[in-house]
Specification:
30% strand; five-stranded mixed sheet; Fumarylacetoacetate hydrolase, domain 2; alpha+beta; 12 strands; 25% helix
Length: 266
């Protein structure tokens, strides 16, 4: 059984209560607010345990956020941030979502991968090529995010990490096992609202290539005594700025060569 510090456990319980109750989270109390990224990930682990105890179940994989230079500069970070994805929050193909189930739900345009083999931590450091050998399939995806804060700008990056860095689930397209026929750095992702494109980006917009982000995650997990496992889903980072849907909107994510997903927000 994993042991957590009192401060990590207390912070996790506050965050878990806010997430379950769909209540905007305020700045954490001084005595349990994580002070740096490492402490943020400790709270994140405690949060996953707390949410599992509340019926959310197991993790299906991970999301990677803050993968662009602009976002890293905005948050004064030098690297991306990782978070967990609960299997109970994974959807497939087409989904109807209710705005009231979130504080402020948003959509991100992503390339997702499914791992076909474990990446044992003792094989680190990983690079783009070594992680590619463990990828089973790739797919178009929508990351469902939730700006669930009274003021995200004042929360502190460590607290955002603790709370899965805005992660609230995902919508996955059909997996493509022949992904090696594509140049994932060159594929274009499109974000459409009610059939009208409002943004697009390239795979290379994510750290130069989506698998650079995947390698970062594998190496980060290794430093924490974890590893990517066969069957894990990983969202590699948004190609397009987040879109916050209005009531009644339909949002399509289309990744050229990889497929598409569709969500309606009521």
């Amino acid at each position: 059984m994993t042991s957590f510090s009192d401060s990590a456990r207390n912070a996790a319980q506050i965050i878990a209560s806010a997430r379950v109750g769909r209540i905007a989270l305020e700045r954490l109390p001084d005595d349990c607010r994580p002070s740096d990224e490492a402490a943020g990930y400790d709270v994140q682990d405690a949060l996953h345990a707390a949410l599992a105890d509340r019926g959310w179940g197991r993790l299906a994989g991970y999301k990677i956020g803050c993968t662009t230079a602009v976002m890293q500069a905005h948050l004064s970070l030098t690297s991306p941030c990782g978070g967990g994805i609960f299997a109970s929050r994974v959807h497939h193909g087409t989904v109807d979502l209710v705005l009231a189930d979130y504080v402020r739900v948003g959509c991100e345009t992503e390339i997702a991968v499914r791992m076909g083999a474990d990446l044992a931590g003792d094989l680190a450091p990983f690079d783009r090529n070594s992680v590619a050998s463990a990828v089973d399939s790739c797919m178009a995806a929508m990351e469902i995010v939730d700006n669930r804060y009274v003021d995200s700008a004042t929360m502190g990056t460590a607290t955002l990490i603790a709370d899965d860095f805005f992660g609230a689930g995902c919508l996955l397209g059909e997996p493509l096992v022949e992904w090696r026929d594509l140049d994932l750095g060159a594929v274009i992702g499109h974000l459409l609202v009610d059939g009208v494109e409002i943004g697009q980006g390239r795979g290379a917009d994510v750290m130069g290539h989506p698998f650079e982000a995947l390698a970062w995650l594998a190496n980060t997990l290794a430093t924490r005594g974890r590893m990517l496992k066969r069957g894990d889903i990983v969202l590699t980072g948004s190609l397009v700025q987040v879109h916050y849907p209005a009531p009644g909107e339909s949002v399509d994510i289309v990744i050229d060569g990889l497929g598409e997903v569709h969500a309606h927000f009521s």
